[in-house]
């Protein structure tokens, strides 16, 4: 039977929803979208969430993520970490899905050329101003972060863990020099010795007239990460959901820090870790029963999906 322009047929069978939609063009082509109603998209923060306090993935977590993927669910990493600092976990989990780095500034598939890769850069003038205010911001180091490279202050090398940058050693050629900054970075990474990183983030936001996004990292590190205005994990996830033609209600997100707020708000189910900061908890739908040192994410996913 011919399908009229306003006619919509929906067939639900074994969890598969087929939508046959009459297009608006005169050729009356029919587009078919197929959704598996039982499958979910799981977005995972790393520090303080999927990783334990030693920045490691437990065997139990690795195996649980593997089982979740084998069940047909899509698992994504959404982290403030630069690509270099997250790639080892991506490989350890044997993922092949897109990854969100720099709190949403970079959306890509590691090790592949992906036509829908998206970058949102911050104006280099903010990095230059950070360097001018290094003492005011009580910085141990300030770094300009790019997809495949970084440049960092080196006055306090004893306070820089090279692993933060995915390298074995901080080399002289990575020294940041204001007069040589010619490219806009993905983000600005700063470690501070301020006693209250949340108060400092608020102070810095005021200093820059709320023109940029300044977020704290989860876990034990006193790290602040700065991106362009409007760049968040949620923005990156919204872009990915559009590419997947998926609904936010199909998204399950786990986080522990201030930079996870928008992500939890976006998700159909947003989990705050048991060890989450008080700034995040009010935005969560649920809280994990166990913390990040007790495989909190894996235990919840096992109960929910396996």
Which keywords apply here?
single chain; 306 residues; alpha/beta; 8-stranded mixed β-sheet; 8 helices; 25% helix; disordered N terminus
Secondary structure elements and their pairing?
Elements (H helix, E strand, L loop, with lengths): L7 E6 L2 E7 L7 E7 L4 E4 L1 H5 L8 H12 L3 E5 L4 H10 L6 E3 L4 E3 L9 E2 L4 H9 L6 E7 L4 E3 L34 E6 L4 H11 L4 E5 L6 E6 L4 H12 L6 E5 L5 H6 L2 E4 L13 E2 L8 H10 L1
Parallel strand pairs: 4-5, 4-14, 5-6, 14-15, 15-16
Antiparallel strand pairs: 1-2, 2-3, 6-7, 7-8, 9-10, 9-11, 11-13, 12-13
Summarize this structure briefly.
This protein is α/β, with parallel strands linked by helices and 306 residues long.
